[in-house]
Amino acid sequence: MSSTLPKIAWIGLGIMGSPMSENLIKAGYDVTGFTLEQEKLDRLTRAGGTAASSIAEAVKDADVVITMVPASPQVEAIAYGPDGILAHARPGALLIDMSSITPQTSVDLAKAAKDKGIRVLDAPVSGGEAGAIEAVLSIMVGGEQADFDEALPIFEALGKTIVLCGPHGSGQTVKAANQLIVAVNIQACAEAVVFLEKSGVDLKAALDVLNGGLAGSTVLTRKKDNFLQRDFKPGFRIDLHHKDMGIVTDAARNVGAALPVGAVVAQLVASLRAQGDGGLDHSALLRAVERLSGARV
């Protein structure tokens, strides 16, 4: 282990957090992790990291603290309070929140951390589980240029497209736009799949040729097999996309932006969740279209 690299504390070792923390270990970083599930901590130690028994233990000696948890309430739970990051991280530490949360939560966190002498970046990601494993995530960052420059080598071990989008909260705003585009794109693909199948067309051939033209997209490339095989094992759960559609519709309302198609897709995601499909991959929007079309589910 190179002693010149910053010591990293990683809080939250889920579908995204586990492979991301492992990529930092592979890049030579000393990573101490904390999460609620013991098997995830065991996975981290097998990969060469150190498991901590609490947030306080994980962050106390860290130069950089990275958080990757599901939503705003979890970020607030791990950041604030007597057992939280702000109470135990050392002054001068850099806190990088890579969760997808409301822009306002990021702004508030940066303000609260500043009082403790802790610097903050919001750095949500896009690319899903596959992007996390392959270290090709898109990382959208909000915060100060100097802090971004310091964090850049860490981001480069995790992703490929890394952009400072503006002040605190900007990363989350761009991530919300990302989730809007992805959901609408998946919905359009799902509608096309049902239309093609009901028309008796060879679905694999159709999706291959569509993906080679203007209708092609990263979404179609990544989700084609999910559609073809009806494999909805979660890379990114409907539950989380439901949360994100709430963030984008709320934030758009606050700034006076109309999202007519986004609002409809937000409702379709909500209905899928209400039908018990919240734990499935977001490509399961196909199931909602099938139900509406009287096709197989």
From TrEMBL:
Entry coiled-coil feature ranges: none
Enzyme superclass (EC): oxidoreductase
Keyword Cell membrane: no
A GO term for molecular function: 2-hydroxy-3-oxopropionate reductase activity
Domain 6-phosphogluconate dehydrogenase NADP-binding: 7-166
Keywords: NAD, Oxidoreductase
Pfam families registered for this protein in UniProt: NAD_binding_11 (PF14833), NAD_binding_2 (PF03446)
Domain 3-hydroxyisobutyrate dehydrogenase-like NAD-binding: 169-288
Enzyme Commission (EC) number: 1.1.1.60
Keyword match Oxidoreductase: yes
InterPro entries: 6-PGluconate_DH-like_C_sf, 6PGD_dom2, 6PGDH_NADP-bd, HIBADH-like_NADP-bd, HIBADH-related, NAD(P)-bd_dom_sf, Tartro_sem_red
Annotated family: Belongs to the HIBADH-related family.
Protein name: 2-hydroxy-3-oxopropionate reductase
Organism: Streptomyces fuscus
